[in-house]
Design a protein that fits this description.
Distance between the termini of chain A: 55 Å
Number of strands of chain A: 4
Largest sheet of chain A: 4 strands, antiparallel
Shape of chain B: elongated
Structural class of chain A: alpha+beta
Largest sheet of chain B: none
Strand content of chain A: 5-15%
Largest interface: A-B, 59 and 69 residues
Helix content of chain A: 55-70%
Strand content of chain B: under 5%
Structural class of chain B: mainly alpha
Distance between the termini of chain B: 45 Å
Oligomer: heterodimer
Order of helices and strands of chain A: HHHHHHEHEEHE
Radius of gyration of chain A: 28 Å
Helix content of chain B: over 70%
Radius of gyration of chain B: 18 Å
Chain lengths: ~230, ~190
């Protein structure tokens, strides 16, 4: 807020919100507040017409701006990917550190202790894998886990919450009678079988809604193509 | 699949290092990001550099996108932060953001500028005379169609401040129109 911008009275707040009201961008509570004022204040209704003029002028003003010829998708892409991605930098960095570790002239005891810690991490990862396949063999299978029993169906693309454990995911899918058939794909997206092939749109949407309702476990569930 | 889900998937692919997904994102958003920056910094070369920096930031930090706002809001937020940093740096080099706006203008007073223009053109001229902050918020609302909460996220300000700033931006615009001989009956 600049120095001369004092807090708004209620009417001024309504005036401020008219712009969002005109564009259908208010939530229900604010929309009803604005409409209540509009019903009893003709001057506010006059401002709505003014807002449409302003909006059109601003859109035209933006679109009239000539774009520089050097502004191209290729230039932006080249600049962006010229930088190593953070993920790849981290992975490369880890490998490099491992190599450096084993080539570094440090005490054998320290190297052994660190190697032992790395082994523990690997064992934990293996245990997690076991948890997935042993405890929920049909409810949580990746493509490599084998899913030949699931020949066809209606599918969704699902991303699970970062904090969700394998046990949580398996329990959720078991409860909903759904199975993972593929994944993880880039972005940790999984393909999940919602039910039989050619579910009606309403059945599919009901099942998607059930998935989305498990908001502690599922952060994205969206229809996927049939196959 | 709705647009929001499409955007989340696109961001997930970028986070996984998919350059084709980044290309799609740039194709969809580059012009709007550029226009947002250009309207504020009033220097096409700088706006273009900053717009490219926005997509570099996306490529490097796509994993930090948590899906709490739309992708366009997130991009505008990155653009705003980069613009603020760039303008701060320029100010330190004796460049003033408001002066930049003045230099880009043609020097006419609103009265002279609007004498030969129709109402719509006069309105556009007056919009260009708004302060950078006011121009930014009307652009975000009217052109980029950002909601109150989205503007708050882009500018990192409270929602109450968004409303206050929008109120005074509209008020100042009407005052400029009045000064240009086009009294709209408000304020």
């Amino acid at each position: 807020m600049t120095d001369h911008e004092t807090p708004l009275s209620e009417r001024e707040e309504i005036e401020a919100m008219l712009a969002w009201y005109a564009m259908g961008k208010l939530d229900r509570t604010d929309r009803e507040r604005v409409e209540s004022w509009l019903a009893r204040d003709a001057a506010l209704a006059h401002q709505l017409a003014m807002i449409e003029d302003d909006r059109l002028a601003i859109v035209k003003s933006n679109e009239a701006r000539r774009l520089p010829p050097s502004l191209t998708v290729e230039a932006a892409l080249k600049k962006a990917v010229g930088e190593p991605s953070a993920a790849r930098t981290a992975a490369t960095g880890l490998l490099k550190r491992v190599r450096e570790f084993f080539s570094a002239p440090t005490a054998m005891g320290v190297r052994f202790a660190t190697a032992a810690a790395a082994a523990v991490i690997l064992l934990q990862a293996a245990w997690l894998g076991t948890l997935l396949t042993d405890r929920a063999p049909t409810q949580y299978q990746t493509a490599s886990g084998g899913s030949s029993a699931i020949a066809d169906g209606t599918y969704a693309l699902v991303r699970f919450a970062d904090g969700a454990t394998a046990k949580d995911i398996a329990a959720t899918l078991q409860k909903l009678d759904m199975q993972i058939t593929d994944g993880p794909r880039p972005g940790n997206i999984f393909r999940v079988r919602l039910g039989a092939k050619n579910l009606s749109a309403s059945d599919r949407d009901t099942r998607l809604a059930a998935l989305r309702a498990e908001s502690n476990v599922v952060i994205l569930a969206t229809p996927a193509s049939q196959r | 699949m709705n647009m929001e889900a499409d955007e989340r998937l696109l961001m997930a692919r970028i986070a996984a290092g998919d350059q084709a997904a980044l290309r799609t994102l740039i194709t969809h958003h580059q012009v709007r990001v550029f226009r947002f920056l250009a309207r504020r910094v009033r220097n096409d070369t700088l706006a273009e550099d900053l717009a490219n920096d926005v997509f570099t930031e996306v490529w490097l930090h796509a994993k930090s996108y948590e899906g709490r706002s739309s992708v366009s809001t997130w991009l505008l937020s990155i653009a705003h932060n980069k613009m603020v940093s760039a303008l701060r740096k320029r100010r330190e080099e004796s460049w003033d953001e408001d002066k930049a706006g003045e230099i880009a203008d043609d020097g006419d007073t609103p009265e002279i500028a609007t004498q030969k223009l129709d109402k719509a053109e006069a309105l556009r001229r007056c919009i260009d005379k708004l302060s950078p902050q006011h121009r930014e918020i009307v652009d975000l609302v009217y052109y980029h169609e950002q909601s109150i909460s989205e503007v708050a996220a882009v500018l990192s300000i409270p929602e109450a401040t968004v409303k206050t700033r929008m109120f005074y931006a509209r008020k100042h615009l009407s005052e400029l129109m009045k000064a240009a001989g086009l009294d709209r009956g408000w304020p």
